[in-house]
Structure formats: structure tokens, C-alpha cells
């Protein structure tokens, strides 16, 4: 057999391919949990895919849902009762959940059909006491769960100690990554200025203090970065920002570098995480009204404040929108990051075009090759998420993660690669779907319909106040016309050297936040044919103001900042109108203009051909 290209590639620095879960472990772990619940007089227990910060990505020692059920997706809940158990996930994970868990013990359930509260209402036995960990659910979520338990004739019970922790014998240690300063010339605004804006917002909201429970908000406010979460430069911690005076940041002192400590110390105090409860109690004792972020603050925080005599105020964290609206420095940085990332993608696609026809490539080979090209920039800090490289039927899994066990050869058909990089000046996220060999007519049809939706979002103009939910249908209409759709949002927000998934902005049926200039979003419609192939096309876009001659309203549109050619072999020209063809040709001309000087030799030749007019 010819030497595999993988043997000529460096090992991945930021990604591994070990099997993350074993369905055979699920039954004994569920049985052990049921025994523990019976000893506590509980009829069941809720296990969310969450840590105390309600983040999308959780550190290893908080991955309780994965440990119990085998499911490693980024969203989901399990409910374990004495006689039945459900794993409730959204449409992205329908196939993955069934593959990763033991379906003889746990029933995968689509959230769209049976959400968590409805499942509880339908299945909790009358008089049943349903346990939950108050550090893993928000105030609003607990209220919803209480209502569901009551409707079933039972009660929701907060537990002092999560029962899974006593069963998890080889539980990983908490992360200890150093907390570093994020330079102001990259952030574009110093911490003192950010705190002044936050405190002004607290005054207008008539609250006495804000608890920062979202690590993204913590990192942004204090211009710090960490490494406690895989692929996302976050320090896990909290802060309390009073309406007047100096804030307190709660971080493990041994993790804070001298530079970061000096930067925080110039504007506030640093305290160990164990001091958080005492300070919340002190605010409560003083009768303070304390704002908690409704989307990330644990129910336990509200209880601590309320029990001490204060008033927890569950609402909007003012930092979320401040962080979402990138300043000019952040936008300049992300544009620069996307140029070098685009050049890395072109080198990777050139390699793929050369190696794929030999029939020896695997999904892991493609992941390693792409990471190596990004590393060649000399500025890569990490990948922004585990690269999705799906060949054939694996491409039909929107959040597929290749392992040694699932690794497929890249054979004639479709290869979908969704990837990104973390650079100090910006976070990237791009998806390209490539034809390996001659694609079928159906593949060309589906790809072109996805591309039409992608172009519709790129070209959209909309009045100020428009939300992502109002734009989402534009990406779906070409698919709907053929009786097709996709089961994920069209776009998510993206941070500035922070999380590749950032709220509150998004383009989806649930995206109610108005889009504003400076917000970065993804534009990624798709199509997935289970068991055969999948298609997704993704660029990042920035909301910008547009001047419409003769108009009398404030109008916004999108600036595209991702630069990489589309797959010409999958474009069915007869499905495109003249305006769409002109848009693709103009985009490819920009790709060539932006990247030609950043690549050379074979890659430059490949790029020139890929960017020729249709």
C-alpha cells in the first residue's frame, strides 16, 4: 500500500482523535446513579450539558452528561428516572446521540418534538421528587422545571452535592491554565473605559451591582484571556461589579500571571473563587439589588443573594451587547486574521486537490493537514473548535468529530470541512464542501441551493431593528422550494479572540436580538442527506451601515470577511440567476485580489483557476 499522506504530516497539536465515549459504560453508570438517587429519596435527576457558567463548551471535570450517557455534543439534557431515561437533544445531534449512547437504557429524544419540561411533565410519577444541581441551571430554567414537575404532581428538589461526582472515580482535575493579559492594542479599549460603560448601564438599570457569571464577559471586561476551555481562550471565574467603586474578580490566584494581576489590580481586586459566596451574602445583607445574567447565572447565585436578604435581579447582562459590537481595532484584527486564514485554506485545498485522487487520504489526514497550514502562519494560538472533516455519510452529521474508530477514507463523493483558528487578533470559522471525483446531479443541485441561500444572506439589506430571525428564511427559501431544509441555525455570533460561538446575535428562528453594526456572524446554510452526504457553506460576515440613495431609514447590510473559493465542480449554473452569478464572480475576484500575494507556486496556480469567472 502506498505511504499514507498522514505519515508525512506533523501530529496535530491542538486536536486528538481518541474515542470520547463508550456506549458499553452507559448501563452500569445509569444503574449506579439510580441506586444513589434511591438512597436520597429522589425519583429522578436532571443532568444538563452545562457547568456553573452555562457555557457551550465545558471543561473535562464538568462533562457529566458525556460521562453518564456517552453523548459528547455541545447541547443536551438527560433525565434519569427509576424505570426510564431520556437524552434530549436538538436536531443537530439526532444521529450522533443514538450512536453514542446505549439506546437500550437511554432513549434519544428530539428537543423540537419533546422539550425537557414537557418530558418531565409526561413522565415524572405523581409525588416524585426530581433532583437537580442548582449550579447547573439558570433561574429561568429552574422556574420552568418547577412548573413541569408540579404539573406532573411532583416536586423539583435542589441537591447540595451532585450525585454523579461521587460515582465518577476517574474524574479529571479542574483546569489550571494561566490567566494572561490581552493587550489594549488588540482589544481596542482599556478596562477602565469598559467598566465606566458597565457602571453607567447599572445606574440606568437601577441595580446596585452586577455578577459577571459568563467567562466570555469576564475576559472581555478585564482584557484577559485564559485556557480553561478547549479551543476557547477563557479563564473560568466570576466578577462582581458594583454600581460605584472597584470590582472584585474571582480567580484562582495561582493561575493569574503577574502581568494579568497587575492589569486587574489597577482597576479592581482579585479574590479566590471560594470568597464569592461570602461577598454575595454581604451584598444580600446590605439589601442590594444584584443583576444576574438570565442566560448564564446559576440559580444557586440567586438563592445566595435572596437568603441573605438581597434581591436577585435576573435580566440582561449589559456586557453581552457591548462585547458583540466590535470596535474598529477588533474588526481590523479579525480582517487580518481572515486573510492569513484564507491563505492557509488555499494551501490546504491545493494539497487536497493533489492528494485526494490517489484514494489514500483519510478524514484525520485532512484535519492534520489543515491544522499544519494554519500553524505555518506562526500566529496560530489554537484551533477555534475541533475540526469537522466528514467524508461521505459522515458529512451528513452537522457536528461530526472524527475519531480513530470513525475515520473514513476520502473517496469519490463529498468531503465537508468546517474549521477555524484562534489568533490573538481574531477568531475564524469557515466551511467548504468539496467534490471528490465526479459529483452526482443531485449533489450539484443541493450544493447550488445551499449556495443560493448563502448568497441571499450575503446580499441582504435590512432596516435597523431587524433581528436574525427575520433574515433566517432567506437562507432556506431555495431549499424549501425543493421540499428540503436543514436543522440548525443559519448563523451564530463570533467573538474577538474569544468563543467561535458568541451571543446574543444570531441568524436563526430563535434570533430575536436586533443586528447592529460591528456584530460578527456566520452565514452557513446546509443540507444533509442521512447516510449519504452533507453540504454546508460558511463565511463570516460583519453588520455594517449602508447608504441607500433616496432612502429615509437606517439600513444595514453585511461585509463578508472570509476569503476562499467555492467548489466550482458542485455549482449548477442553470439554478443561478444573473445576479447570483455576478456576485460569485465578484467574490472570487476579491478572493484572488486579497490572497494572491499571500500564496505562491502550486497554491497560487490553484487559486487562479478556482477564481476564474463562471
Automatic annotation (TrEMBL):
Q: Any idea which UniProt keywords this protein has?
A: Aminopeptidase, Hydrolase, Metal-binding, Protease
The family database entries (SUPFAM superfamilies) matched by this protein are listed as: Creatinase/aminopeptidase, Creatinase/prolidase N-terminal domain
Domain Creatinase N-terminal residue range list: 29-159
One Pfam entry name:
Creatinase_N_2
Give one GO molecular function term: metalloaminopeptidase activity
The Gene Ontology CC terms held by the record are: cytoplasm
Please, which domain of life does this record's source organism belong to?
Answer: Bacteria
What region holds the Peptidase M24 C-terminal domain?
555-614
The UniProt record lists the Peptidase M24 domain at 334-545
Tell me the protein family, please: Belongs to the peptidase M24B family.
Q: What is this protein called?
A: X-Pro aminopeptidase
The scientific name of the source species is Bosea vaviloviae
Upper lineage:
Bacteria, Pseudomonadati, Pseudomonadota, Alphaproteobacteria, Hyphomicrobiales
